[in-house]
Amino acid sequence: MPFGEFQYTVDDKGRVIIPPPFREFVEDGMVVTRGMEGCLYVFPLGTWRRIETLLTELPLTDQHARNFVRFFYSGAAKARLDATGRITIPSTLRLFADTDANVIIAGAPNRLEVWNEARWLSNLADVQASPPAPELLRELVG
Is residue 132 part of a domain? Predict the structure, then answer.
């Protein structure tokens, strides 16, 4: 599982470096899509295939489920590492996440997240100002 955070810059062609510690995690290809809180999620292909299965099982009769599938699935784009360890983020996703300059690439349990740097710092400040419920913290740290 990837963990850690790294600061990079998206170039004028929409390319960004995937940090070396994360490359093995996505070396067989990946899917980039809209994430929560305005970031982008980057899933290895195997994880994305499991997500696709779960998305197809959501009820078509549930408006919230349909809206989530549209949000999450319609923005998805396949990506592969180039020879220098970069991926190209489609312009629609860069616009969604405001990632045309400095970004943070952070590891998460089943994905990478690509954040606008200012949004990342704001999110961290929000977490510090309003920490998780004590029950969750006890469960995590014993």
Answer: no
